[in-house]
Amino acid sequence: MLDTINTALTTIDDFIWGLPLIIAILAVGLFMTFRLKGLQVTKFPLAVKELFSNERSGEDGEVSSFAALCTALSATIGTGNIVGVATAMVAGGPGALFWMWIAAIVGTVTKYSECLLAVKYRVVNEDGHILGGPFYYIENGMGHKWKWLAKIFAFFGVGVGLLGIGTFTQVNGITSAVGNFFDPNAQNVIHLLGRDYTLAVVISGLILTVCVGLVVIGGLKRIAKVSEIIVPFMAVIYIAISLLLLILNANKIPAAIVEIVSSAFGMRAAAGGALGAIIVAMQKGIARGIFSNEAGLGSAPIAAAAAQTKEPARQGLVTMTGTFIDTIVVCTMTGLSIVLTGSWNIGLEGVAVTTNAFQQGLPFAPQISAFLLMMCLVFFAFTTILGWDYYSERCLAYLSGSNKTALKIFRWLYIAAVFIGPYFTVSAVWVI
Question: Helix 351-361 crosses helix 332-341 at what angle (to 10 degrees)?
């Protein structure tokens, strides 16, 4: 039964992430880059300056610009940076990382545009909450006759939060990492739903469910408060560990970059298979890149709309730095670590690929390296769960007219999805 479901999901996934969508994504990014005169490069220093500038406490909005960025980063810096990069490279080769870079470069200006629009067209509802995102700038910016499109976006936004990026992938990543660390040989198992699961997976899943429930029931301000503390801390720790690995293996980096670029253009494929290798690398790299940095996905604008600012362009600049941090910095470090240790091509999958890379590349005992990665993954994925709860709630608020009963029911459904997340297979979770 599971094999049948996986086959069906893979067929749908290959169709959705085929060449037409890849071309469309790149074309939109290139078009915006041309029209905005390479803003992601020319205005990047200004974006960094605005990121660290004094907060404008008297301006409209619910949270600071930095808190809005942290909420967005809490949703983007997650399993995509650790597990997503690994699964992309296992399926598409090292070249998938190159196409992640391309998706990030053109996606940065897309994220600037969508976050600018979110602030420009945001609204204040009856209870004083600031609401914004693609559904509002579609309806208010394109005109009321496009409200049907805004509703479709909001519907799928609820779905991707509840059944995709927000729950299953993150929870599965956390519990798999915990299980691999505490019980790698699966010695303590219980039988559930026709399969065996280690006690570490079951217990970590229960603890995670409780922690998520305690935070999401508190709403945006609690999510933003938790994100402001955890996101900078976890990003610095992960970058420091990855940087140490790369410094210790600096002599292998040039060869790794050559392998990434040559793989991206099918130069390592067998005769006649170059085009197929390029398409697979593009497909996996761009799909996982967008999963990771969410540029153009319409999620970050929902958080950006709540920022305390009267200048839409300012918030667009601040938020676009998230794409650079997520993909160009964090994903690149993960990808280089995997390539220079050769972990992508030894029959592993999911978090085991990155764990192996850290164990091979760091000067610590294998258990210590695995523990460090596990803790980073736990915090990364936990904040992503919180961020996507907020995103999908905003989508539901648009659909339901901010119906409080609907939002309460959704929160409990979200917690339930977190609860069942550990019991899916890794492959099914990532295809979903």
Answer: 70
Predicted TM-score (pTM) above 0.90: no
Query: Pairing relation of β-strands 130-131 and 189-192?
Result: unpaired
Position 353, amino acid: V
Q: Is the pLDDT confidence value at 320 over 50?
A: yes
Neighbouring CB atoms inside 10 A of 283's CB total: 22
Of 57, 383, 43, the C-alpha closest to 232 is: 383
Over 90: is that where the pLDDT of 127 sits? Answer: no
Listed range (188-202, 231-245, 333-347) with the worst mean pLDDT: 188-202
Question: Both tokens of residue 192?
Answer: 């559930």
pLDDT of residue 217: 77
Mean pLDDT computed over every residue of the chain: 84
- At 23, the amino acid letter reads I
Per-residue pLDDT tens over the stretch 286-316: 877 777 778 888 888 988 888 888 889 988 9
pLDDT in tens, 7-56: 887 788 778 777 777 788 888 889 999 999 999 999 999 988 887 775 55
Q: Which residues are within 8 A (CB) of 127 and not within 5 positions of it... i.e. 6 or more apart? A: 402
Q: What's the rounded Cα separation, in Å, for the pair 411 and 343?
A: 38
For residue 60, the model assigns a pLDDT of 63
Which position has the token pair 């996982």?
A: 288
